[in-house]
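$ run holo --ligand "flavin mononucleotide" --emit tokens
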Amino acid sequence: MADLSTKFTGIRFENPFLLSSAPPTESDSNIMRAFDAGWGGVVTKTIGLHPVVNVKGPKTKFLRADNNGYRISMNKRPESTLLASWNWELISDKPLDWWIGKLSRIKKAYPAKILVASIMAGSGNDKELHNWQTLTKACQDEGVDALELNFSCPHMDRVDMGSNVGKDKVLCSVVTQAVKQVAKVPVWVKLTPATADIVEEAQASFRGGADAISSSNTFPSLPVIDPNTLEFEMNVEGYVSSGGLGGPAILPLSLAKMSQMTKALPDKEFSGIGGVSTFDHALCYFLLGCGTVQVCTAAMLDQAIGPKAVRLSGRIRIF
Ligand SMILES: Cc1cc2nc3c(=O)[nH]c(=O)nc-3n(C[C@H](O)[C@H](O)[C@H](O)COP(=O)(O)O)c2cc1C
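-- output --
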């Protein structure tokens, strides 16, 4: 077996492929199955201090295109190909207390695998900044290898959270700085693609002390409208709100964001996310200068943890 190991933010990875923060990493059992399948690392589903109440209705839908036609729809049907995932899921519905004990057990069982804790708190006042520090200390005391700060969820129910932080370069800096004051492990910042110039938020995060940028989270988007019912294909009692688009459709969009950052900041480290289902897709991110690549939608469709997707690492040898 070829040596696929790599160093990223000072951490040694068996291979540069990670599951990104999402349903495939929402529990200890999923994470351990992912390690057994061969992933070099995982980023946990985003952990907050308090339980969140998720939206009604399905959390994730899959948008498909007809193989012989132009119709795109979330309705399941034969002869169609996956275009994208669409979700309005919030962060982990299990609060920090649930994860304590489990993170350390995962790390003890899989010492060579890389466990990254994704965390999120608010940003409106000093108490919220302190919450970031509480999450940081608790997760690193559990032995996680790195932290990923979620400045990127496009549909949080609070204005001082998620992509609202990632859209404000001052907040990007201030929150990263607060975390770095107490962090003993590398700190990655996951940015939203929904800004005019992502380089500005990346620079601000690095000024705050970030060790790497992960990008992209999902893109803000609406479900299509069914021409027969005139309803959005995904709605709850007739209402809809913006959700996040992931999967194949966002690969070129995410690559554009990534190339802006790697061109402007060639000496910095980046983890590429968005639309990766095969080695060829991952290769695009590596060639743009990313040190690791993360996968969500492809893994969700593949027994929740992506044993097929992980086989993509085998093609590195051919390349
Ligand atoms: C259902 C679902 C839930 C997600 N939850 C989180 C989350 O809690 N934290 C986070 O940082 N990203 C979250 N994401 C975003 C993914 O980690 C990833 O950035 C995005 O889906 C793009 O990657 P993909 O094209 O491989 O799906 C979620 C994505 C989906 C589809």
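-- notes --
Residues 20-23, 45-46, 59-60, 85, 87, 89, 91, 118, 150, 152-153, 190, 217-218, 246-247, 250, 273-276, 295-298 surround flavin mononucleotide (CB under 6 Å).
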